[in-house]
Amino acid sequence: MVASAVFVTDLQGKAIISRDYRGDVPLARAIDQFQNYLANVDEEAKKPVFHIDSNGEISVGEEVGANGVGGEHFVYVAHQNVYLCAVTTKNSNVALILTFLFRLAQVFKDYFGSLEEESIRDNFVVIYELLDETMDHGMPQSLDSNILRTFITQDANRMAENSNSKPPVALTNAVSWRAEGIKHKKNEIFLDVVEKLNLLVAANGSVLHSEINGAVKMRSFLSGMPELKLGLNDKLMFEATGRSNQAKGKSVELEDIKFHQCVRLARFENDRTISFIPPDGEFDLMTYRLNTQVKPLIWVEAVVEPHKGSRIEYMIKTRSNFKSRSVANNVEIIIPVPPDVDSPSFKSSVGSVTYLPDKDAIVWNIKQFHGGREYLMRAHFGLPSISRRDDADDGKKKGENSWKAPIRVKFEIPYFTVSGIQVRYLKIIEKSGYQALPWVRYITAHGDYQLRMA
To answer: Most exposed: 145, 214, 258, 351, by fewest CB within 10 Å?
Structure first.
């Protein structure tokens, strides 16, 4: 990637701050062109990548470069009330430029708490230093806030002493995500395996779509430069080590695995060992996906009856389909209702029920839903629109149109994973030989969890 310049503007395209890296683009003209693009191009036609040729013609998408030779390519992202834009004359890697801009926005947020026009104007000195250190002659450099903080101090708004004479070791060594000399009074590492279940269930109970999106999240408070090895009940790892038979029924096959840059990918590809030197603090070690058939953890049935006399009745039954030793916390069952109902009344065997007229829904809250339990809830509403119908069946059809939206469920189940993934071991090796405490926790939560009503 080669970016000639980077600048930040307000929503009208007026420049707030800019940095010219290569001197091959008339920066003032480029900012004016970007401002004209925002002002003159229809909103639906705007794209995050566009080209303005030497004749001033704009092209986007597949048309980029088709209207003439020369000119500049613009790549931009929006955040709050500002735009971050990179401009280049080269045939650059657009995906890499977009990644750089998003990461740069995150660095600004880490430094200033929020990224908006006011925070940029209040921190010009630090931002110029960050722009200088995150890109060199158009090539991206370190975009890790923890590393940048070691030599760019927010409070002083200036380079730390002696930083001009010697760059931080983290910028030049093989472990750019971790500084040397880190010390903690208590060496601990916390590991959370968090899985979110996306589920769509038909009215007849058949599962139309199920997917598990998981993440292994870490908070590392370890001194020195520790080497960690993480073992999971990964099916391919068991097969690679010849233990597939003994692991039958206890392994999972992970898909779409994405690792933090600290993981040694060559080692993982060779023997499925997850070996790494962790960053200090909080980070996502890996994410994964399982496209597998999962039965609903929380099942909901709804019987809806419109009656003559301008009223409608709901009977909701919910059941937990997980073992009794597990508990789902803060369960919300969101049931859609017609937009013109009134006079709500509820009766439930557990929890509380609330009518939300602005969302045309009732919410059944169950603070703790133990496994293997079943609960009932009844809701009554007035429905004036039915009384205006001569035929009760017509009123029923009208009501049915309002019940098309599915029931949504929100929940969180600690100490449980729906995929069955397990941390087999977490080894911590550091040359000083200190003892560290690893803590492992499992959580399953809702993703896009929907059940269609009959």
So the answer is: 258
Answer yes or no: do 253 and 196 share one domain: yes
The tally of domains found in the chain comes to: 3
Is 182 within a domain? no
Gap between the Cα atoms of 239 and 318, Å rounded: 40
pLDDT tens sequence across 266-313: 888 888 889 999 999 999 999 999 988 899 999 999 998 887 768 889
- CATH number, domain of 339, equals 2.60.40.1170
User: Using one digit for the tens of pLDDT, what is the confidence trace for 103-148?
Assistant: 999 999 988 888 999 989 888 889 998 999 899 888 888 888 877 8
Residue 179 counted as domain residue:
no
Inter-residue contact 309 to 321 (CB < 8 Å)? no
| Percentage helix, strand, coil for the chain under 3-state DSSP, each rounded to 5 | 20, 40, 40
CA atoms within 13 A on the CB side of 90: 15
CA-to-CA distance for 30 and 60, rounded, in angstroms?
Answer: 16
Where do runs of H (alpha helix) occur along 215-311? 235-240, 265-271
Span 181-222, pLDDT tens digits: 899 999 999 999 999 999 999 988 899 999 999 999 999 999
Determine the Cα–Cα distance for residues 377 and 364; give it in Å rounded to an integer: 8
pLDDT at site 385: 57
User: Distance between CA atoms of 307 and 384, rounded to whole angstroms?
Assistant: 11
Q: Are residues 40 and 167 in the same domain?
A: yes
Question: Three-class SS of residue 81?
Answer: coil
Q: The domain containing residue 321 runs over which residues?
A: 298-414
Query: Same structural domain for residues 262 and 153?
Result: no
**Would you tell me the crossing angle of helices 94-112 and 124-134 to the nearest 10 degrees?**
140
**Same domain, yes or no, for 284 and 233?**
yes
| Overall pTM surpassing 0.90 (yes/no) | no
Q: Are residues 215 and 343 in the same domain?
A: no
Domain assignment present for 181: no
d(CA 162, CA 153): 13
How far apart are the C-alpha atoms of 257 and 259, rounded to whole Å?
7
Beta carbons within 10 angstroms of residue 432's beta carbon = 9
